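tool_log.txt
---
The assistant was asked to compare two proteins side by side. It first ran the structure predictor on the initial sequence, then on the second. Raw inputs and outputs are pasted verbatim so the downstream comparison step can read them without reformatting.
(1)
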Amino acid sequence: MNITKAIIPAAGLGTRFLPYTKAIPKEMLPLLNKPAIQLIIEEGLASNITEFNIILNDDKQAIKNHFSPQPMLEQKLKEFGKESLLDGVNAIINDAHFNYIPQPMPHGLGHAVLMAKAAIGNEYCGIFLPDEIMIGQTPALAQLITVAQKYNASVIGVQQVPHEKVSSYGIIDIKDKLEEGIFEVAHLVEKPALNQAPSNYAIIGRYVLSPCIFHSLETIKPGAGGEIQLTDGIAHMMNNGERVIAYVINTTRYDIGTPVGWLAANMSIR
């Protein structure tokens, strides 16, 4: 199993950051001196991902611009002896292949993933949720890929959350413990009530999924909010014989989907 392709759903409206995101995509919010999405791409490259399928709407041109050459800027920097300022992003442009796939209307995370069906084909792929930045010695997605290859299965990233917060996440119901931090999944429960949560292992923003996910996303009906939910698609795969494993990601996770979380990440990341 050679996993070299990834999907990054980035067509959301960024309403929690308005009015800032009226003009600037939330994925371009700075984390120190880099836009947040650049850290996602760096994690992908460090996990041997070479093709990034970014799901966009028409208001996200800034993301395309960031990962494209800018000869005039590069020439000006060269004249001032500052061309090294773009070394990091230029290395990404040289090493990565980007596909920009439109999602004109936000019909849910599952719908966004489904937009990449033709680009992924009949391959396993990684999925990054760009609202979540994960920093650790081994890249988060690389950890999932290792488990997927070992067990020949789809893998979802999880971390333990305080019991009082389980109703904010998709939660796994554990069937078996395979190894330390690796579980066979029995069921997925989306945002359970506190007294109905089967565990406190929450699904977080990294996945390695079988191409079967696309058939499931095409088959299921809209779920919460009238949207196509990725969790529902994974559950459908499981119900149709696809093995799904949960892996406890060993990184520090920063949820930058809210202004408070984004500020905390900027204060913590070095």
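(2)
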Amino acid sequence: MHSIRTATPDDIPLILDLIRSLAAYEREPDAVKTTEADLLRDGFGEQPRFECLIAEVSREAAGFALYFDNYSTWRGRSGIHLEDLFVLPRFRGHGIGKALLARVAVRAVERGCVRLQWDVLEWNQTAIDFYRGLGAQFLDEWRIMRVNDEAIHTLAALEPAR
């Protein structure tokens, strides 16, 4: 039997371990630059930028969901972006991922959100099949655009002098 609870500041080392496990699963084990201080500041400070749920089996961490608010200008309402959904391999196949996603959906419904969205790697067919089985749809006409690190500074430098 599993349970889901809201993460607390005491969970920060666990959350970071789960993020690292997810990065390894997604074939990017060295990509995580996040620190415990980052998670404390951004998840549990005065103005939290994300929320996190922890799934447990017999009081042992089994997975997590980390999400934050977004906004639809076309719908005039907020939504939720699910940044990470991850279940440790030994706990898969027991409904934990579905339960985490359902709990995030409950939060979206409680807040009057008009959408819940997330990204999935194109090679992760297991996840794609899982999400489709829950009613999720691909937005085939949309592509994710991103600038990182130095590219953000380069773009910001294009602003005309004030």
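---
observation on (2): Strands lie at 2-6, 51-57, 60-72, 77-87, 116-118. The chain has a mean pLDDT of 95.
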